[in-house]
């Protein structure tokens, strides 16, 4: 496939992008607002669908939120790579606003489910465009953009559900969706005025299966094959713990308030980790960030299951949340470093789709009684994560040493797809 960039679209030199501008700060606010709307929209859908008394409604909403991004993710990312990122971002946020208005104005279950699926598709486009464009903003680079994105995602996960619930309580579910529609319009307007203009890339014709599956793009990313076990393994175990932990932690916590505090401590640790990864004090390389972050998360979940004491679990949750942010920032930087700019949105959408499917599997496996009692599932989750990270680290070490004793091999290419070059 031939890649050619148009004139005037090269990335500005580092000196020109060093200082963060008011436009960049507004763009970061757009990212935060979009993430907040996305989190609150899903919670409100669950609340409104469960209140109807229709047994299949909640399941349909969850499936509509999961299935379209998994099926359409590679294609949507491919489109973002080949269109104006600014207008893709803006359009997706406006589609989200339309979905909010539609849900507020209808009681027809099938229409609500369809709008839920459409909003999930729009969310894929928003995330792909933000992933690609944030590092192009003045004052940001791949590392700081990743740090801000992970931090704002954590903040949205904390504030989004309460915001949606409070809005619904103060008005009604329909009123809350109207509030979200207004926020989405504000965010879309902000994206239209502050997002960088994406590099337009002229590409030769792409076969349909590469558009839908991204197979050719994924084959070119050796680093993805190297880190796929640990990345997907961490998604699997955290999803298993997320379901089993609902039951286990409520038995450990003496009151619902303590239970809520335990969940908040993980998010608090994630905010701290996101802040730290953007500082100069962060000397971890990309590969080390992925591994160390996954290790901290696995150990936190393992200790959670072994030591059924709320105070201890609270402490390890802060550590686990910190590792969660470090791990996620490392994944984003891994894609930035190894994927050509013309394919970044597609790869990121593909990765998100695969992780969503893995999370669904983890949610199913985490159901108490399927693999064992809730506490046993939590312990098993931590042990699986620890083993996955350890095995991946050993394989990376072996691959690096193989590169050192094979000077005739082209630089950066080692056995089994591992890429051992410097990643600072």
CATH third-tier fold name of the largest domain? Growth Hormone, Chain: A
Query: H/E order of the elements?
Result: EHHHHHHHEHHHHHHHH
Percent helix range = over 70%
In one word, what is the shape? globular
**DSSP helical segment count:** 15
Overall mean pLDDT: 77
Strand order of the largest sheet: 1-2
Number of domains: 2
Q: Which class best fits the helix and strand makeup?
A: mainly alpha
Report how far the terminal alpha carbons are from each other.
29 Å
* Uncertain spans: 1-18, 409-424
CATH architecture annotation of the largest domain: Up-down Bundle
Strand runs, count: 2
Computed CA radius of gyration, to the nearest angstrom = 21 Å
Biggest sheet, open or closed, and with what strands and sense? 2 strands, antiparallel
Going by CATH, the homologous superfamily of the largest domain would be MFS general substrate transporter like domains
Percent strand equals: under 5%
Give the quaternary arrangement of the chains. single chain
CATH top level of the largest domain is Mainly Alpha
